[in-house]
């Protein structure tokens, strides 16, 4: 019985809502609790409701948000690929290649900041990046707002969701961000074992977990419910970084190649890996860490040769795969 599918989480949230006598069922549903995670914090100026989440979802998948109506957020963040796109680097407006690999959007509700160099504090402002980037959606916000205001259905939906007669960026960004905060994934066989003491992991996966938390030291950065501490780290991926990461913000050479530590959930759906999609398989990821990485002055001291046997490497790959949700919580 696959009780750890998304319906389980929904069920749990509904039970909690019922027990706490909360009237707004939708709000309780979006907040959680979700197994292992703290309750989702919705900013006071961006509270969820059924209408708001549905509007945000519609906008997220609407190519009309890009200059020539060809690219939506969902073009690069596809639900069936855990909101990634399967490409080394995403392709945006007019077939242009963007600078980076598209990260998953599951569990963004808990991120302290966005982008690989952690440069943006809020989902509402993050989206200005893709909307206005000439390689992504290539639009400009005033033009986009005029376009949406000319659309009577959208005006109706904004009125219903936010009570406003005219659409503005404040409410548009809140609708999309509110939808993003409902994208939760945390129901893997690892969760069933770790949080509920189910016998859901194989012997190899259990050995992999012991390596992950012990000899291989992955847990130093990949910890907590989303298997990341969100810290910015140089893992010695390259000797010379084309994409300088945190250095873009600080101009401090000690920050070259430092990228936000990603979640390790849903890796079976999110290849290729790393900020530039340069690592194609989980086997190659493990080879990278086992080698201790490339020599780079900013490389974290935690990245060092691991001397894993072939058996240990495959056990580590096995646990990485087991962090994936068994039932992909696709919510279109
Ligand atoms: C052309 C492809 C493309 C489109 C279109 C796109 N994104 Fe992205 N998205 C990316 C890439 C690539 C990154 C990584 C950028 C970075 O970290 O600098 C990213 C990063 C993000 C992040 C940050 C995640 C993190 O872990 O920090 C969020 C949130 C996000 N996108 C939401 C959106 C929303 C909302 C839209 C629509 C308004 C959108 N994206 C449109 C490719 C795209
Ligand atoms: C010093 C902190 C740190 C340690 C220790 C660490 N990682 Fe990472 N990990 C990162 C960072 C940062 C990235 C992203 C690097 C990039 O994008 O260039 C990453 C990326 C990954 C990815 C790619 C995820 C994706 O979606 O692209 C996998 C898989 C991974 N690590 C697994 C592991 C394993 C397995 C170990 C232990 C052998 C480990 N990590 C140890 C910080 C760390």
What this model shows, in words?
The protein is mainly alpha-helical. It folds into 2 domains: 43-180, Cytochrome c-like domain (Cytochrome Bc1 Complex, Chain D, domain 2); 189-322, Cytochrome c-like domain (Cytochrome Bc1 Complex, Chain D, domain 2, Orthogonal Bundle), CATH 1.10.760. It is 37% helix and 1% strand. The protein is built from 14 helices and 2 strands, in the order H-H-H-H-H-H-H-H-H-H-H-E-H-E-H-H. The protein has a two-stranded antiparallel ribbon. Mean pLDDT is 92; it is low at 1-23. The structure holds heme C (HEC) (2 copies). One heme C binds next to helix 13 and helix 14. One heme C (HEC) is lined by residues 71, 73, 75-77, 90, 92, 98, 100, 102-103, 105, 108, 111, 114-116, 123, 126-127, 130-131, 136-137, 176.
Short description:
The chain has 14 helices and two strands.
Shape: globular
Q: What structural class do helix, strand and pairing data support?
A: mainly alpha
Summed over residues and divided by their number, the pLDDT gives a mean of 92
Could you name the CATH topology of the largest domain?
Cytochrome Bc1 Complex, Chain D, domain 2
CATH superfamily of the largest domain: Cytochrome c-like domain
> What is the correct CATH architecture of the largest domain?
Orthogonal Bundle
Strand order of the largest sheet: 1-2
Ligand inventory: heme C
N/C terminus separation: 24 Å
The amount of helix comes to 25-40%
Write down the domain tally. 2
By DSSP (H or I, 4+ residues per run), the number of helices equals: 14
Largest sheet descriptor: 2 strands, antiparallel
């Amino acid at each position: 019985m696959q009780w750890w599918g998304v319906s389980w989480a929904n069920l749990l949230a509904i039970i909690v809502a019922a027990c706490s006598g909360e009237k707004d069922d939708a709000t309780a549903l979006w907040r959680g609790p979700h197994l292992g995670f703290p309750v989702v914090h919705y900013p006071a100026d961006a509270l969820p409701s059924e209408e708001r989440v549905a509007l945000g979802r519609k906008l997220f998948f609407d190519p009309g948000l890009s200059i020539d109506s060809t690219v939506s957020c969902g073009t690069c963040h596809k639900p069936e690929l855990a909101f990634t796109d399967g490409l080394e680097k995403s392709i945006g407006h007019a077939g242009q290649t963007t600078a980076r690999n598209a990260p998953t959007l599951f569990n963004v509700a808990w991120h302290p900041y966005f982008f690989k160099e952690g440069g943006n504090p809020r989902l509402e402002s993050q989206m200005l990046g893709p909307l206005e980037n000439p390689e992504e959606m290539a639009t400009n916000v005033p033009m986009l707002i005029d376009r949406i205001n000319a659309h009577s259905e959208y005006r109706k939906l904004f009125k219903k969701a936010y009570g406003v007669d005219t659409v503005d960026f404040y409410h548009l960004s809140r609708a999309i961000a509110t939808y993003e905060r409902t994208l939760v994934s945390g129901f893997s066989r690892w969760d069933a074992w770790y949080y509920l003491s189910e016998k859901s992991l194989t012997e190899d996966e259990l050995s992999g977990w012991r390596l992950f938390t012990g000899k291989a030291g992955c847990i130093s950065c990949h910890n907590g419910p989303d298997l990341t501490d969100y810290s910015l780290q140089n893992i010695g991926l390259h000797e010379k970084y084309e994409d300088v990461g945190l250095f873009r913000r600080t101009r401090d050479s000690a920050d070259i190649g430092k990228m936000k530590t990603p979640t390790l959930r849903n890796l079976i759906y999110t290849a290729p890996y790393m900020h530039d999609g340069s690592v194609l398989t989980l086997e190659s990821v493990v080879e990278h860490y086992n080698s201790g990485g490339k020599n780079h002055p900013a490389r974290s001291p935690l990245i060092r040769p691991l001397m894993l046997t072939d058996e240990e490497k495959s056990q580590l790959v096995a646990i990485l795969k087991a962090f994936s949700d068994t039932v992909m919580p696709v919510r279109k």
